[in-house]
Amino acid sequence: MNPIxxxxxxxxxxxxxTLGLQxxxxxxxxxxxxxxxxxFKKQQDQVVAEMVAHYQGSPLFIExxxxxxxxxxxxxxLLTAFQMLEHWNG
Amino acid sequence: MPDFFSDLRQAIQASxxxxxxxxxxxxxxxxxxxxVSTILPIxxxxxxxxxxxxxxxxxxxxxxxxxxxGKKGTIRDLETTGLKEPLAGEILSGKWPGNVxxxxxxxxxxxxxxxxxxxxxxxxxxxxxxxNGNINGIDGHSRFGSLGYGxxxxxxxxxxxxxxxxxxxxxxxxxxxxxxxxxxxxQVKSIGNRKLISTGTLRQSRKPLDVYIAQKVIQVxxxxxxxxxGFAYQAGSGxxxxxxxxxxxxxxxxxxxHGSFASGGITSxxxxxxxxxxxxxxxxxxxxxxxxxCSLKNNSNHREMGASEYASPFEQNRISSRLDAMILSGxxxxxxxxxxxxxxxxxxxxxxxxxxxxxxxxxxLTIVAMPSMRGRIPSINSTVRTICTLGQYVDVLVTERGIxxxxxxxxxxQKLRDSRITTLSIRDFKEKIHRIxxxxxxxxxxxxxxxxxxxxxxxxxxxxxx
Amino acid sequence: MGKGRTWLYCPGNKPGKIVxxxxxxxxxLVLDLEDSVAPAMKHEARNLVSAALMHHPLNGDVAVRIxxxxxxxxxxxxxxxxxxxxxILRIPKxxxxxxxxxxxxxxxxxxxxxxxxxxxxxxxxxxxxxRGVENAFSILDAGEGFIHALSxxxxxxxSALGIDRKGPEFVLDYPRSRIAAAASAAxxxxxxxxxxxxxxxxxxxxxxxxxxxLGFTGKSVIHPAQILSVNTIFSASSQQxxxxxxxxxxxDIHQGAVAVEGAMVxxxxxxxxxxxxxxxxxxxxx
Lengths: 90, 466, 286
Hints:
heterotrimer, A: 90 residues, alpha+beta, Ribosomal Protein S5, domain 2, 4 strands, B: 466 residues, alpha/beta, Glutaconate Coenzyme A-transferase, 2 domains, eight-stranded mixed β-sheet
């Protein structure tokens, strides 16, 4: 993965979102690392799906390193990441 | 007078220990314990198999030694109040060779004194022994304080082996366990790491959240009316409990209220409590820091207490039955006020029963104080993963986002209303917290890997794989 | 809004802190987009604060401190807060009538375009410079009723004058008095500057007490540990409440001054007693 955008942090309550270009696949490659994955997988997947649905560009590698972030935090970080990616794309 | 051995192997040989028997250790040395990790490998070398390990708890590196001993077949069954990784992972993966039983401190004491779990060989780490074989935990350079859990083991075990790193030339400050209860004494190089002995379960914190919750607990205690002359109190070793004890002592000092005693695990705020006259006495089953250990040695109002005297359900005059208020914590609570202090919501084994189930049942007022969520994980759920303390024994839940009173305590609810303390129903509280965190998935319960015993011996709940 | 005793600042790019900020008993929160957020993080923080306003239950009143008029960020900040449903804006470094007019111009324009005309936006204006302090009265006059609190920022003020923030207690008496008088004349709240050394509780108490005695109604804080002390200082004490009840028990005083416990009670004192009881009732039910 060639990381282009990195938003957030690994502090408690936050999430680090990394977006990168990838050529291996036609669809987005999404990796979510979270200590609460077993408890909140559904919610996390839903937020990611919602935010990714608005993105129209080339397939991405999306890596999410969560540290107990609430859904609205994940949503805000993803929004910022995609906005920065748009800006990078020009 | 006991036999004095120069070698652990000799001593173990002399005890008559055989395969399949039960051995015991206390955990008073906390994270600094070197006794468990010294002795278990020796038992393995000596070829012992299928022993039952009965410990008051497992903290720190002792868990590694137990894990190895389990893999090698030396230990088969395990009885404790709690344990952590990596032993927890081994048990949850189903690889542990035998039975695992979790008991509260009072439950363990009751099982020992009634003969339900007879101990053949009790290893009693002692910071000092005298020439006659009397032992304690308050003299010597490895002092740790009260020998509360060791006292019960020593009174009932077939063979008591004191393990020490200091033989005193003169009489001890006090005899926690008299020589007539000690069968053998062996001196080793070191029973523990001095620095680590006074840390471990004690969590000192000035975190704003812990301070805030502790302040709320004090408000509830005040409003409930229990804090008056003769007040008897106990709190756990968690950060909020320690902070609560500190605030309570300040409050009682300011208002010139004289309590009768504080008990249980003794921390420095409680020591300050007897030094300034807020409490008349301390009953110490476990000294959580060096200040408590020194106070036990030097202050005649600071008394050592055996685990049975502390909380055995079969001891009619147990100290816990005289408590006016108990503050404890847990990992999660459910809408019936059942408390989990052993596993997380996700099923991992994280903590211990401790003395919570005993004191919660016996105390006039039981307050559970904890954060409403830890990270994203809510502390309140529809049901808890593992029941450690039954909801009928929990009176009030205090968190930073709400206070809930058990419906059976309308008397307390009225007092809180009179003091203009807002409460909400536990179900409304659960909704409130889940609106913030999201509703966590219920992790499926697969095979059972351990039992949680109620203090009188019945099965209360089971620990399941996930 | 705005009569809160304590306003807790919370950095807008620290979600872990935002989640907890509302639980410590502060009457208000200030989600900060200005000084606690590095320039490179302004965009991230804006999105986080917007999301928090929309989705996280924050207890008490919530203000957002946007970036100052001289920056590239303030307009986007203002738009984002309005769009997210925020209703209290804390505006730093206001110095002149023109400053407040610029804010109001954009505010009304944004509200109109977004269809938020019915939402009543409240402004808390921070006066942090000598010019701002001097212009307190005229700034309020130009506020068209949007300004609900004046706030004092001592760090920049002291820096401008070359004086020590932690110097003798009287160094801030003048700006505090002027701001408190202006706020009182407008009938709005008056919020004191932060005490930045959160391990110095004695210093905090002295500072807050001084501000209260000069007419301030509350104080901004930067750490939860400061909340209890400041709430206590800005609350009516039990002695004050007892006194107020005694005064009001004499009934109407339209006949003129009367004596209560050896002291003269006339109309202003009667009003003060009513104010004390009203405030203590509000705090009880908060």
